[in-house]
Write a structure and sequence with these properties.
Layout lengths: L1 H27 L9 H10 L16 E16 L4 E13 L15 E5 L8 E3 L2 E4 L7 E5 L3 E13 L11 E10 L7 E5 L3 H5 L11 E14 L5 E13 L2 H20 L9 H20 L12 H27 L10 H14 L3 H50 L11 H65 L1
Parallel strand pairs: 1-9
Antiparallel strand pairs: 1-2, 2-7, 3-6, 4-8, 5-7, 6-7, 8-11, 10-11
Helix pairs in contact: 4-5, 4-6, 5-6, 6-9, 7-9, 8-9
């Protein structure tokens, strides 16, 4: 039985070869303008009896191996809001068609020919992440070699869904996958392999347009075999396209203006706290930063599931400006005291004017100010006291002389001495001098209270400024470190 089956197969092969020879002779003997056209004869030979709806294998148990390749040409668009990536790729696939085979000696040594794609069998390999039909040019031909190798090369505009992580914007690295898989055929019918080695595919950037916003890092590939219902297994080839954003544009237009405004806010602390210019300066900065955020709001990527870290950075900068303005208002309220303000409490004097300057190395300046103010106060008291004593002594002498003269005159006239020797004018002068003395003393006490509150305000201003500066520096170092790590990764 085995021998008879082998003879039967041999006879069938002889018949098939004879029929092909007859067909070639028949095609070669055609007359007309295509009589000597080798490609026409070859095309007619290949299309004779070809069934493009049937998988091109003689043994149905044989799996068709489709080798695929991918080269990224350009990154057209990255839509963070809709989570869509648009790329332009060069896609290549090749497989063996056992029915498209000929002998080059019969056709003037023609070893490959291009035939219409619509006339041959093409595997149904698609990209799973497709969400829209791109504007891809139609390539109507495929190349076929004499041993049945079919090469289908074509450019494709791929619009695919991709999970985009914008937390690291503008130093983000995105990893989007393109999964090629036969939509219907199982691995027993169509299997997928790589046309090149994974290492060569990873580092291939020959055709990539490297002048846009995004930079191609590498392309990773992974083959997998999966099953949906634990019965039929499907082959898939997944390409991971890893791209990185170039952050120069966003650094110049987003980060630097914000940094400049924060530097000006720090510089504003050097304005005297007892002047009203600092408050207006801080309010102007806050308004300018608000306008800046309105302008850049359209530039920042927005998604429903997350906010980029740079957005948090802007919010924190706005909060720091508000805190700075609040601190300025508090200090200005302390240093601008009214005449009826209560004296500085003893615990405030101890903590702010004695302990804090020593701990934070600001005691020399304020001790000098305190010493100068005390000396000025003593000098004022000395001048006022000297003037008052001189005036009071002069008045007393005048009063005694006047009384002595008046008594002498009255005794010389034989009249009794008066019981009210002081005239009304001198009493008024003494009352006025006493009122002036009380007013000056009250003013000196108010000045001393105001000076104490002024020193409390200066010390607190220095302390809060240092705390604010430390917070800004720590925040800047943290963000700079994170962004540097993400950019290098």
């Amino acid at each position: 039985m085995k021998l008879s089956s082998a003879w039967t197969a041999f006879i069938l092969l002889l018949i098939q070869g004879a029929s092909r020879a007859c067909t070639v002779k028949k095609l070669g003997s055609s007359t007309g303008r295509f009589a000597n056209a080798t490609l026409v004869r070859l095309s007619e030979f290949l299309s004779a009896g070809y069934k493009k709806g049937v998988r091109p294998v003689k043994d149905w148990r044989t799996s068709t191996i489709v080798a695929i390749d991918l080269m990224v040409y350009s990154i057209l668009n990255v839509d963070e809001k809709n989570q869509v990536l648009t790329t332009y790729v060069w896609y290549r696939q090749a497989w063996t068609d056992e029915f498209l085979v000929w002998d080059p000696e019969d056709f003037d040594e023609v070893k490959q020919v291009s035939i219409p794609t619509a006339n041959v069998w093409v595997p149904d390999i698609l990209i799973n992440e497709f969400v829209d039909v791109g504007k891809s040019p139609d390539i109507p031909y495929v190349y076929v070699t004499y041993d049945g190798l079919v090469r289908n090369y074509k450019p494709i505009q791929v619009v695919t869904a991709c999970t985009l992580n914008i937390y690291n914007f503008p130093f983000d690295v995105q990893k989007c996958s393109l999964t090629f898989q036969s939509w219907l055929h199982t691995v027993d019918d169509i299997n997928i392999t790589l046309m090149r080695s994974p290492e060569e595919l990873r580092e291939d950037k020959r055709v990539f347009m490297n002048q846009g916003e995004w930079e191609l890092l590498h392309i990773l590939s992974k083959y997998s075999n999966f099953s949906v219902d634990n019965d039929d297994h499907y082959a898939e080839m997944k390409f991971h396209v890893v791209i990185r954003r170039r952050p120069l544009f966003y650094t110049v237009n987003l980060l630097l203006p914000s940094i400049f405004l924060m530097v000006m806010d720090v510089v504003g602390f050097y304005l005297p706290p007892d002047s009203g210019e600092r408050v207006s300066f801080k309010i102007t900065l806050l308004l300018g930063y608000s306008v800046f955020l309105i302008i850049v709001s359209d530039t920042l990527p927005a998604t429903a599931i997350g906010t980029p870290l740079i957005g948090v950075y802007f919010v924190v900068c706005m909060a720091l400006l508000v805190i700075s303005l609040t601190e300025t208002v508090l200090i200005v309220r302390l240093v601008h005291k009214q005449d009826l303000q209560t004296p500085v409490p003893h615990w405030v004097k101890y903590l702010v004017l004695e302990r804090a300057p020593v701990l934070f190395c600001i005691h020399k300046k304020h001790r000098l100010c305190s010493r100068l103010s005390s000396q000025a106060s003593d000098l004022e008291h000395y001048n006022y006291g000297t003037a008052q004593c001189t005036l009071h002594h002069t008045c007393e002498i005048g009063r005694r002389i006047s009384q002595h003269d008046r008594e002498g005159g009255l005794l010389g006239l034989g009249l009794p001495p008066s019981r009210d020797p002081t005239p009304p004018v001198m009493d008024n002068i003494l009352q006025e001098v006493t009122a002036i003395r009380h007013f000056l003393e009250k003013r000196d006490r108010c000045r001393e209270v105001a000076k104490e509150w002024l020193q409390v305000g200066y010390v607190l201003d220095v302390l809060l400024f240092r705390v604010y500066l430390v917070a800004i520096v720590a925040y800047s170092i943290t963000l700079g470190t994170l962004w540097s790590v993400w950019q290098v990764a």
